[in-house]
Amino acid sequence: MSELPDTFDLEQCALYLRELAQIASSILPIGEAALALASFDRPRVGLARYRQHLATLGRDVGRHASAGGDLAARAQALNEIILLKHGYGGDELTYDDLQNANLMRVVDRRKGLPVALGILYLHAARAQGWDSVGLAFPGHFLIRLAAGADRLILDPFHGGRVCDAAGLRELLKTMAGQEVELAAEHYAPVADRDVLLRLQNNLKSRLLQAGHHQRAVSVIETMLLLAPDMAELSYEVGLLHARLGNLRAAVRAIEEFVGRAPESAARHQAAALLQQLKTKLN
User: Fold this and answer.
1) Does 222 score more than 90 pLDDT?
2) What is the C-alpha separation between 140 and 92, in angstroms, rounded?
3) Which CATH number is 274's domain given?
């Protein structure tokens, strides 16, 4: 496995992400992977001090007086180190700022989106060997700490509060609608790759809303480094290339989708579009 470079080197970062994509485990070096993704938007900024900061978070949590205790004590150690000592918090005032989904800028500004802060929590918890995962909670990223049969759910964005069933139900209705009821799938753990894709998806959706289609293409391409098996990303980037007039790039991307997608209406639609694009090229 290649090492994440300390100096700026996008080629090495791309190789790092491609190698992560080949790892079968649901657990990845999530903090360093998020830094590799962040580097594509800040290509001339070295990673050394950010890697050192991640190491410091892990070391400080391990030295906290509560680190050897039960799950509540572990949550206290994470909160007091990440939120109090290092000054992190959820960015409620400028929530949609693109910087909130770039881990390098999150470290610089000490604020970010729920998933970005969650990645810091996961990194620091795993540095202690603690069982910690992200959850498939809709619209708001949460993490779960576990020890044996015990479970504890934390909300890094809202002051690291511990979420009980009533709090989760209230949050779910806020995020997904009053008619939605709490179910087992909302507690389901997600693989780290999905957490990282969720981080990048925040960037992509905000760029598309702002009409920055070329930058959105770049973000989707980073997602494909980490998830080359997700054919739908190839289709999405192909559509954006077509919109931008990059017809050859659009053809390559949509060919990739058509060649890998299962038989479906979307595949037929993509095949028809592919023929139209090839006609324009000839």
Assistant:
1) yes
2) 13
3) 1.25.40.10
